[in-house]
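Thread: "does anyone have the structure for this chain?"

Original post by V.I.:
We have the sequence but no experimental structure in hand. Need at least a predicted one for the grant figures.
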Amino acid sequence: MNGLQPAPVKVPWTLVALALVTGVLLDLFAFEPYLGLPLLAAGPLIAGAMLPYRSAVTIVAVTCAVSVGLDIERGRPATPLLVDLAVVGLIGVLALAINGLIARQGRDLALTRDLAEAVQLAVLPDPPERAGPLAVAAGYVAAQAEARIGGDLYAVQETPFGVRMIIGDVRGKGIQAVAAVSVAIGAFRQEAEYAPTLDTLVQRLDEAMTRAAARTGPIPSSEGFTTAVLAEVSADGQVLSLVNRGHPPPYLVHGGRLVRLDPTVPQLPLGMGLDDLAPVGRAPAEVVRLPPGASLLMVTDGVTEARDAQGTFYDPLRSRRMGRRFTHPDALVDALIKDVDRWTGGEGQDDMAILAVTRSLASRS
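Reply from O.Q.:
Generated one for you, tokens below.
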């Protein structure tokens, strides 16, 4: 049996050696009736929990031999010698069993992570590098390496009406979140080709998310929803239209400056089924100019709610690292990921999705 533990490191071997040496010294020099058997037996337990299987077997065998040698050295009769050997041997067997369980859990975890990653890639494929007059880049950073499935989503699609894109965040985690992400991405890709306006596209997405939520059973409106920003860039790259449905606002990055594009009218998230009841449920798309070389930066709350050691939220507008010129969206996404990682000290609290598009300098203004 071969465990899937990482390669041996100095610390486990040091602990095993310390337990064995201390046990031997106590067994030889401690006052009676104390013997070093408990510490001696700790060596196999440490090895079983922290070392590869073959190394653990070696430690168990060495410990049994040392136990017998110590009893012979001290002139102990055969019965206590066999008892000590049985105790050390039993603990060694238990240590090897623990090693096997850890190895099995490691294999199961690796398989689960691989499947989760495959599902994530199937539901949320990488966007194209170019779409119309735009260069495109995206980044996804999971808060925990073991949990690669989250509720963040993004997509970019070139359509007869221009380049349309979405970034969003489904409330929740795990399989239910992935199912909601699948619905949102599927509805976006279908309706983006046929909805004549961005407002119509948002309305159809909201209806699709509401129907999907209704099929899963009665869910309180505060629990089943998706925040999202939908954007459309005209075929010539000049006009940017935005609809924000309860999501962190995007940023316009141009000439070394970041401008946050806050919505004029607050709107409800998608899938709540309250648009017909709430007057703030719908609002027309907001239109801004997208200069040549400018970038649209869209993020999820894993960025805006990232906190430092003092609990202060990250703000790209206050970061000197983000206040520089970016000629390609890849550089913009990488800079933001590194800046958030620096701010949190590598301790991200939530999944983080980033989508950036940059208008080509060659496109006509």
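V.I.: this helps a lot. Helices lie at 10-29, 37-50, 53-73, 78-123, 174-191, 198-215, 301-304, 329-344.
O.Q.: and The mean pLDDT is 83.
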